[in-house]
Amino acid sequence: MTLLYGLITGVVFGFILQRSGILAYEKQINALRLIDMDVFKVMLTSIIVGSIGIYFFKDMGVITLSLKGTSIGAQVVGGTIFGIGWALLGFCPGIAAGALGQGHVDALFGIFGMFFGGAIYGVIYPFMKKYIISIGSYGKISLPQVLGVNHWIVILVFSILVLVAFIFFERKGL
Amino acid sequence: MWEKFGKSGKRRWQMKNKKMNPYLAGALVGIVLVLSVIVAGKYLGASTTFARGASLIEKAVGIDYSKYEYFTTKKEKYGPSSLPNWQLMYVIGIAIGAFVAARLSGTFKMKAVPETWKNKFGSSSIKRWAVAFIGGAIGLIGARLAGGCPTGHGLSGLSQLAVSGFIALAFFVIGASITARLLYKDRRG
To answer: To probe the interface with B, which of A76, A81, A127 has the most B CB atoms within 10 Å?
Structure first.
């Protein structure tokens, strides 16, 4: 059943993203060149809606959080390395699968590269664990915890900031 | 939700191929995330599947994956025995969903090299595929080090207001936007 849920979730996700047009290489690379913000509009809107839903149902006791551990070293170094790869390929991992589905053959080579990258990470993991992941490792922390404020205040402020960004994008025609 | 979109949308898209508004698409994706967590208890993510896939390929071709700590740590969380799992099916589903949507809307098109790339770097498929392969490899190394990709850290992480998500997404975008600018810098002036 879990496998079926995964498949259905993926199909719906892929369907929506295809219809929004953001699976195209042009959309992705132009977002990264900061000249067409559609990719970020989709992403940030989903985060706002997601955060409201997640915390609403968490408060209701329906779901639990599953936070990824914070490591300044891992997220700064890994994040930057990921970004370089993202721009070279033009697709992030989930998007590459969708891009392949709509006929981007180059996305398939990106996916082959990802398997290769996964193998390389297996080799270099001990080094990363010792020297990078250990830098500024704080465990599973959320922003409301760190700031010591209610999560709804964080969601409200974050939403306002995103809204301001959206108004800016629309005014500039991005 | 699926029925509504599949049916009412299908006829319209076949005629006009109208794109979905990005804010509407984002809102729907947010709802998909929340439903997934409620129904299946799963937050969305994609990059781990490729590390797991790598260990499965190593196993299949006779490389001893168990000599790599990463593939055996946390009860083989990233090892071959973790597959098939929810996330693998999710990633496969994305490709299927995109394929179906593309076919229904008449936007499916086999493309070896994207236009934007062609205009800048020429029409060589080999060159584009080589860079795509290298980009995919670098991206996955970065994602596994960071602990997630724009779906896992970005969408799922930020929706939970995780500190890791904010830092990771910020550096994803910083690394990517600098690289994209360098790639597409106009050398001819």
So the answer is: A81
